[in-house]
Write a structure and sequence with these properties.
The strands form two sheets. The chain has a three-stranded mixed beta sheet. Strands 1-2 form a two-stranded antiparallel ribbon. It is 39% helix and 17% strand. The protein is globular and about 40 Å long. It has 111 residues and is of the alpha+beta class. It has a single domain, classed as Trna Endonuclease, Chain: A, domain 1.
Length: 111
C-alpha cells in the first residue's frame, strides 16, 4: 500500500482540512509542521501566533494524553497556549473540538 497506513493518511488529510479552514478564516500563514515525533516536536501546525496545535483524527477521544502532548509541544515551541484540535466523527473541520486546559483558557481570555 502506498502513501502510508490508513490512520496516518486520515490524520494527514484532517491536518490539511484544518489548515484550509484556518486559512479561509483569517489565518493566511498557517501550515502543517513536519517532523512530528522528534524530541523537540513543536506541534502539527505553525503560523498561528501564540498557539501550538496538536491535530487528532482518532476513533476514540483521548483528551488527557492529547492535552498533555500539546502542553509538552507548546513548551518546545515556546508558545503561550497549547490546544488540541480533535475531529468529530462524521463532521467537517469546522465542527471539530478545540480542547485546552482551564489554566490555559483562563490565561487566554484574561490576556
Amino acid at each position: 500500500m502506498t502513501g502510508g497506513s490508513a490512520p496516518k493518511r486520515k490524520g494527514s488529510q484532517f491536518e490539511r482540512d484544518v489548515v484550509r479552514y484556518l486559512r479561509d478564516h483569517g489565518f493566511p500563514d498557517v501550515e502543517r509542521a513536519y517532523g512530528a515525533g522528534r524530541p523537540a516536536d513543536i506541534g502539527d501546525l505553525v503560523g498561528l501566533p501564540g498557539i501550538c496545535c496538536e491535530v487528532k483524527n482518532h476513533a476514540r477521544l483521548e483528551l488527557a494524553s492529547w492535552v498533555d502532548e500539546a502542553e509538552r509541544e507548546r513548551i518546545n515551541a515556546r508558545q503561550p497556549y497549547g490546544v488540541v484540535i480533535a475531529k468529530r466523527r462524521n463532521k467537517g473541520a469546522a465542527q471539530s473540538y478545540v480542547v485546552m486546559t482551564l489554566e490555559s483558557f483562563t490565561r487566554l481570555v484574561t490576556s
